[in-house]
Amino acid sequence: MRADQILHPTEAGLYCPPGDFFIDPVRPVARALITHGHGDHARAGHGAVMATRQTLDIMAIRYGEDFAAETQVADGPVRVGDTTVSFHPAGHILGSAQIAVQPVKGPRIVVSGDYCCRPNPVCAPYEPVPCDIFVTEATFGLPVFRHPDPMAEMSRLIASMDEFPDRPHLIGAYALGKAQRLIALARQAGIEGPIAIHGALQRLCDYHVEQGIDLGELIPATADRVPAQLVIAPPSAFASPWVQRFADPVIGFASGWMQVRARARQRGVELPLVISDHVDWPQVTAAISHLAPSEVWITHGAEDGLLRWCELEGIPARPLRLVGYEDEPE
To answer: Which GO MF term does the entry hold, naming one (predicted)?
Structure first.
């Protein structure tokens, strides 16, 4: 069986005919396999959803318990139609997984979803999965993207807090994954006092704590006077009246995109923190080199840059041109 008969792009997303399922479909389908809980990959309204236990829990928190007609926890290799599928840690956010698809006859395909090879204190580490075809994201798939050590970025945050002790530090971070990682990194860096969080982060932070992740003392950033110098909020909060309760704040944003200074200026970010939950250029090229697949399929992001690198390395590759994927929607 040819690879494109096992998995190919459609308007709804990646479709597997021998298993009759979609991976991270962008519209409601009969059967969906979901890599992780971010809203551009995990949508409500499918007939049946298979994902890790944590991803299913996160989808229930975000969309309600009835987000799908039926759900199934991905636990070990599972037979789906004429394929066997298995889920492996992606290192992106809590519950994130790569999905390996093995047909009865034909090449093994691993769909990485969003993944990160750096250690992340709030999720299981990325696991290289041997495969014939590797489907990789290219969010930061250009040589310019070389993300610094996250702890070095935390040192910059602490230095700013020390320099401006009377100014609250409001840091924008996506509600799922980035906010919790930022809090955990702050604790690792030695920030011991209370950290204030926007109400939109509360339930997801609670779930991380329920899963055994220590985030320390968190307090709501709802009072007129918030007794914490560090405040974490989703990016959408910075365009709302909520932000006006803070006098002369230092505005920061934690994202891999903060390496692009023009983006930081456009957002009015005084303290850009380059902290990403995606592979950067050295990580994605190292991951491909380590796996040594016979072919690479490239999804959303800078597909042309990674396609050119594969060509120079003698690795057959093609872009999938999938649509509907972006940074975590707010």
So the answer is: ligase activity
